[in-house]
């Protein structure tokens, strides 16, 4: 019926309305890309089908071994996939799309192995491409992959022109290397830096960290910084601290997630935290924000193990087993 993509353009309300209209007659929905956009879109369409007049057959196709794998620890990716399957969403990993088939409308998705999957509607969620057309016309330095070249003050190659957000180049806060992270939180920070510097060059970006959070079914998953696999690729040796505990105290309170888990990654050479991952209740997002600040400030395991924090029986884990503190303590014992 239709193909939708937000890889190069913003998804405007008119496009969403078009998608909603297409879903009224579609049955077989294929989502290409198992990142956050693809996973969340698949989940919401599945929920629409369960509450609407007809169910959808939803399939996610992902090139990597697991959905969300670029941002999250593998074990948490598996948990996310388990939640998706409980919602009757099909998941095909280690699969690459070769082509979309059909005449005026899509009728199937062809995979690299020759498999052809029938489809009434295809949604493509495989990332973002910077819009550099205006910058190129103005003679600014830019490239299609990285975006408009900016310095740490968000200045372009013309110091009187600033660029921020998805259109601008990024570098990793942890490694200093070019980064493909495109997030609203990063864009807002860059926009504030650029706006401030128009009135006086005082603020600098620390680089893109990458802090993510999502809720899939009954599970919330959040991540900041490097995964263990990303650290290995960067040849950064890490010490890992983990903690699993209820997110209420006592665990019998309503709404408790008994197996909420935090996994922290610390550089073995400097001791600084470089990654953190959370899986469990809705507090995962706020907990990973604590971790994101810790990464930005290069805190070590000892500092996090002795941090002070707020607790409440209905809102947090016990003070004796607060996840971030306990995971850091377990890491500190390994140094």
Q: Any descriptors?
A:
FAD/NAD(P)-binding domain, five-stranded antiparallel beta sheet, alpha/beta, 22% strand, 335 residues, Enolase-like, domain 1, 9 helices, five-stranded parallel beta sheet
The low-confidence runs, each spanning 5 or more residues with pLDDT under 50, are: 1-9
Give the class-level CATH name of the largest domain: Alpha Beta
CATH topological fold name of the largest domain: FAD/NAD(P)-binding domain
CATH homologous group name of the largest domain: FAD/NAD(P)-binding domain
| Largest pleated sheet | 5 strands, parallel
Mean of the pLDDT scores?
93
Helices, by number, come to: 9
Shape: globular
Q: Kindly report how far apart the N and C termini lie.
A: 57 Å
Helix-strand string: EHEHEHEEEEEHEEHEEHEEEHHH
The number of distinct structural domains comes to 3
Rg from Cα: 22 Å
Beta-strand level of the residues, as a percent range? 15-25%
Q: Structural class, from helix and strand content?
A: alpha/beta
Give a quick summary of the entry.
The chain is α/β, with parallel strands linked by helices and 335 residues long. The protein has nine helices and 15 strands.
Model description:
The chain is an alpha/beta fold and 335 residues long. The chain folds into 3 domains: 2-124, FAD/NAD(P)-binding domain; 133-198, FAD/NAD(P)-binding domain (3-Layer(bba) Sandwich), CATH 3.50.50.60; 215-332, FAD/NAD-linked reductase, C-terminal dimerisation domain (Enolase-like, domain 1, 2-Layer Sandwich), CATH 3.30.390. The chain is built from 9 helices and 15 strands. It has helices at residues 13-23, 36-51, 74-86, 133-137, 184-198, 228-233, 284-296, 301-305, 323-332, and strands at residues 2-5, 28-32, 57-61, 90-92, 97-101, 108-111, 116-118, 121-124, 142-143, 147-148, 211-216, 219-225, 238-245, 260-267, 273-280. The protein has a 5-stranded parallel sheet. A 5-stranded antiparallel sheet has the order 11-12-15-14-13, with helices on both faces. Strands 5-6-7 form a 3-stranded antiparallel sheet, with no helix packed on it.
């Amino acid at each position: 019926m239709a193909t939708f993509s937000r890889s190069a353009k913003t998804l405007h309300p008119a496009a969403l309305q078009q998608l909603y209209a297409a879903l009224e007659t579609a049955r077989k929905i294929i989502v290409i890309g198992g990142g956050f956009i693809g996973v969340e879109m698949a989940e919401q369409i599945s929920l629409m089908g369960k509450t609407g007049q007809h169910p959808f057959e939803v399939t996610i196709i992902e090139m990597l071994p697991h959905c969300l794998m670029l941002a999250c620890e593998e074990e948490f990716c598996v948990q996310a996939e388990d939640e998706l399957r409980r919602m009757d969403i099909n998941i095909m990993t280690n699969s690459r799309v070769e082509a979309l088939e059909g005449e005026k409308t899509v009728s199937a998705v062809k995979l690299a192995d020759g498999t052809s999957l029938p489809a009434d509607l295809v949604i493509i969620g495989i990332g973002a491409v910077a819009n550099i057309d205006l910058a190129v016309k103005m003679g600014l330095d830019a490239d299609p992959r990285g975006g408009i070249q900016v310095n740490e003050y968000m200045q372009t190659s013309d110091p009187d022109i600033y660029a921020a957000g998805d259109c601008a180049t990024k570098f990793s806060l942890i490694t200093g290397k070019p980064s493909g992270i495109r997030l609203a939180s990063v864009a807002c920070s860059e926009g504030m830096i650029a706006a401030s510097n128009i009135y006086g060059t005082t603020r600098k970006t620390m680089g893109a960290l990458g802090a993510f959070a999502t809720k899939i079914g009954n599970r919330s998953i959040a991540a900041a910084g490097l995964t263990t696999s990303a650290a290995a690729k960067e040849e950064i040796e890490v010490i890992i601290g983990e903690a699993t505990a209820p997110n209420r105290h006592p665990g019998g309170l309503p709404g408790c997630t008994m197996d909420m888990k935090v996994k922290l990654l610390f550089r073995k050479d400097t001791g600084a935290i470089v990654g953190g991952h959370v899986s469990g209740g809705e507090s995962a997002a706020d907990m990973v924000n604590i971790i994101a600040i810790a990464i930005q400030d290069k805190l070590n395991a000892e500092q996090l193990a002795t941090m002070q924090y707020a607790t409440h029986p209905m809102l947090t884990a016990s003070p004796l087993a607060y996840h971030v503190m306990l995971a850091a303590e377990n890491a500190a014992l390994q140094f």
